[in-house]
Structures are given as C-alpha cells and as structure tokens.
Amino acid sequence: MAIAEFTVVPIGTGSTSLSSYVAAMHRVLEAEQAKGLVRFELTAMSTIVEGPLDEVLAVVRRVHEVPFEQGAGRVSTSIKIDDRRDKPGVSIRQKLQSVQEKL
Q1: Cβ atoms of residues 3 and 94 within 8 Å
Q2: What is the number of domains present in the chain?
Q3: What residue stretches are annotated with the Thiamine-binding protein domain (predicted)?
Q4: Cα(20)–Cα(78) distance, rounded to whole angstroms?
Q5: Other CB atoms closer than 10 Å to residue 5's CB: what's the count?
Q6: 97 φ/ψ angles, rounded to the nearest 5 degrees
Q7: pTM score of the predicted model
Q8: Per-residue pLDDT tens for 24-58?
Q9: Strand (E) positions, 1-103?
Q10: In b/e form, how buried is each residue of 27-48, taking b as 16+ CB within 10 angstroms?
Q11: Across all residues in the chain, what is the average pLDDT?
C-alpha cells in the first residue's frame, strides 16, 4: 500500500482565497474514497491518501484537474510518496499508532 501526501495550488485565480477550490477537491476525494480503493485525510496544509499505488496516483491526477475545471489557468501540485513493499499492512493509522506506542 502506498501513502502519498500532496498539495494542489491553483495559480492565477485572481484571489488569495483557495477554500472553494479545496472544497471542490474534497468532494472528488470523497467520491473516490466511496469507491473503496483509497482512503484520505485532509489536513490544514495538504492531503494524505493511501491505497494501491496506481489508484493513489490516479486520484492525485483527478484532484490536480479540479482547479482547471474551475477556471484556474495554472496548477502546481507537489507529491510525496511512501511506497513500502517490505511490510504488509502499512497505513496512515498504523504509522501513527507506531509512534504513539513509543511516546
């Protein structure tokens, strides 16, 4: 299972407020999560999505398109991927639990 953290930044929107773009992207993420192939968490600065690598990349690609669909002229997306294949069952929850057990 892969875990990716990504940030999508619409550029050329005419406003410093991006919450309407974030809300539209969130709706896409909810729809993708409802399909059962990925899970996501929205944070104040980025989004984290987990699932099979191909599905994760497809979701990031779909979310990257949302600002264009809303009229943005340019979009900058940064992605950080943790694709661990030596240990099964790695998830967002499992990674957090591992740290909490050590605290």
Answers
A1: no
A2: 1
A3: 4-100
A4: 19
A5: 17
A6: -60, -40
A7: 0.86
A8: 999 999 999 999 999 999 999 999 999 999 999 99
A9: 2-11, 39-42, 47-51, 74-83
A10: ebbeebeeeeebbbeeeeeebb
A11: 91
Query: What single letter denotes the amino acid at residue 6?
Result: F
Tokens 């944070």 correspond to: 43
- Contact between 52 and 2 (Cβ < 8 Å): yes
- The residue range of the domain holding 33 is 2-102
Residue tagged 């967002």 (tokens): 92
Token pair for residue 90?
């790695």
Interhelix angle 19-34/53-69, rounded to 10 degrees, is 140
Which strands make up the sheet holding 74-83, listed edge to edge?
Answer: 39-42, 47-51, 2-11, 74-83
CATH of residue 48's domain is 3.30.70.930
